[in-house]
User: What shape does this take?
Amino acid sequence: MAKVNKITTLTSRKAHGFTLIEVLLALMIFATLSVAANQIFRNVINANQQTEEVGDALKTLQRSLVIMDSDFRQMLARQYRNGGDEAEDKLLELGDNLLDSEAAGIRFVRGGWINPQQLFPRGEVVKVGYRLHDETLERIRWMYADDSSATEPAVMPLMEGLTNLTFEVLGEESWQKNWDSANVMPKAVRVTLETERYGELTRVYLLPGQKIADTPAGGGVQ
Assistant: This one.
């Protein structure tokens, strides 16, 4: 009889459930772990998004600089017409509000625009310009160096997040923001980009200092 009572007591103890305090404690631990795991998961997602944004911004910057380098390093000493007007003796235009820029703008002719086997209806000389519009660096390209008023240029956004854009050219002795010398190219061009992400970026392009004789548009280079 004593053995039966002992077995009954052990069975009743084993069948005893969790108390309310134990259940609440377990729920609290589970909730704490869930919040911590959720926070870690969010941090991982945010870090991944920031990494992608930084990577995309860096790729955009590198692409923009490659395009600018290609244009400025192949600048030509060539007269050109704007909208069918007579060619001026300026080989390079720059200044505030040029090309409707919200800061400084620049326009010039470049060579080396590859046209393999003359497959496209154009030459290898093209007129390009740069401007700031809606905090975006834009590249403007005309199909021909001597364009007509009926020809609309192609506008390509390069990089967003610009706060200012300046162009300077090196004359005989100093840097200047305007270029009035007739039929003469400056010694160098300095481009300064003020960006929200990277701060101030400066590129300097050395030029061969070419000049042309007083001839019609497209005259020879001296």
